[in-house]
Design goal:
binds BIS(adenosine)-5'-pentaphosphate; binds magnesium ion; 8 strands; 221 residues
């Protein structure tokens, strides 16, 4: 199955991507994570991406599309993939349709389904202000919902927790503006293709995973 997750920052795309990809046995491809890894390594891609990410803006389409094109030609995507955070603009969606068509695999010519995680702005702000990531194992935690997080320490591996630069309040507001302007139009784009399935992405994480898998199943996945 070729699946795309769409939703505002903080909708839980990264959280759900891990569980959904495991259930579907496909690789999870998160453009935000790939950019963050490049920033951490200080690669030329990371240096270019960082100036956009830290201010809550999108990395230019050309850079992002080339990066995804490279990733989708790796052999582990032959039986499908889950994209988290891509596409994020209509030109990216158009490019993805073309990329998938050009892959020419047994899976057919297009994406199978686009799952929209629906969450309102107040919930997004609440989630992102409390999000912490572990330097050690990379697990995402929430200071309010994932106790016990003692002294900024990861409960899984004991690593140090940090807050993402782009989770500062002003940057979150900018990310929400960018989402409404550039990414929300994808709902209509995929709706018109008959590929969009929306689910309520509030409530316990496990319940949302069940909702997502049910929605994909009833869609035919
Ligand atoms: P990216 O990392 O993709 O950021 P984002 O879409 O803004 O999404 P987040 O990762 O902040 O949120 P999420 O939906 O994954 O939620 P999460 O599971 O973490 O991108 C970062 C940047 O990279 C972009 O701003 C841009 O600059 C660049 N970029 C990436 N892709 C790009 C592209 N295609 N084009 C151009 N630029 C691109 O959950 C959030 C929090 O909520 C966590 O604390 C979590 O624990 C908590 N939580 C999750 N589920 C629940 C729940 N059910 N109840 C309560 N809390 C929950
Ligand atoms: Mg994410």
């Amino acid at each position: 199955m070729r699946l795309v997750l769409v939703g505002p920052p903080g909708a839980g795309k990264g959280t759900q991507a891990e569980f959904i990809a495991a259930q579907l046995a496909v690789p999870k491809i998160s453009t935000g994570e790939i950019f963050r890894e490049n920033v951490a390594n200080g690669s030329p891609l990371g240096v270019r991406a960082r100036q956009y990410m830290d201010s809550g803006h999108l990395v230019p389409d050309e850079i992002t599309i080339n990066m995804v094109r490279d990733r989708l030609t790796e052999p582990d995507t032959a039986d499908g993939f889950l994209l988290d955070g891509f596409p994020r603009t209509v030109p990216q969606a158009v490019a993805l349709d073309k990329l998938v068509a050009d892959l020419g695999s047994d899976l057919g010519a297009g994406l199978d389904v686009v799952l929209e995680l629906v969450v309102d702005d107040d919930e997004v702000i609440r989630r992102l202000s409390g999000r912490r990531t572990c330097h050690g194992c990379g697990k995402i935690w929430h200071v309010d919902f994932d106790p016990p997080l003692r002294d900024g320490v990861c409960d899984r591996c004991g690593g140090e927790l940090f807050q993402r630069e782009d989770d500062l309040a002003e940057t979150v507001a900018e990310r929400l503006r960018v989402y409404a302007r550039d990414t929300a139009p994808l709902v209509d784009y995929y709706g018109a293709q008959g590929k969009l399935v929306g689910i309520d992405a509030t409530g316990p994480v496990e319940d949302i995973t069940v909702r997502a898998i049910d929605a994909l199943r009833s869609y035919g996945g």
